[in-house]
Amino acid sequence: MKKFIPLIIVALCTQLMAMIMWGEYVWLSRLSFGGAVGSKLENIQPLLWFVFILEIILLAYCFRKNNE
Questions:
Q1: Which residue, among 49, 47, 23, 22, has the nearest Cα to 37 in the 3D structure?
Q2: Which of 59, 41, 47 is nearest to 2 (CA)?
Q3: Where are the alpha helices (DSSP H) in 1-68?
Q4: Which helix (H) or strand (E) element contains residue 45?
């Protein structure tokens, strides 16, 4: 399981970058129509943050379970 750590780190970083890019896209599209409010990170849907955190928790649980 330890040999997959670099792959998991790359996958999580890529997902985080995609979420940030999505927030920028939503913010810029709202800006073009005159309704941009708040920062770019505030425009990311809470469900995406929840799924991202849940994935990290599940990975930590799997690593802990395999180390025992």
A1: 23
A2: 59
A3: 5-32, 46-67
A4: none
How far is it, in rounded angstroms, from Cα 12 to Cα 64? 18
**63-67: long-range contacts (C-beta < 8 A, 24 or more apart)?**
63/1, 66/1, 67/1
Rounded to whole angstroms, how far apart are CA atoms 58 and 66?
12
pTM summary value: 0.72
Q: Are residues 22 and 48 in contact, defined by beta-carbon separation less than 8 angstroms? A: yes
23 within 8 A of 41, measured Cβ to Cβ? yes
Tokens of 44: 């990311």
Mean pLDDT on 44-59: 87
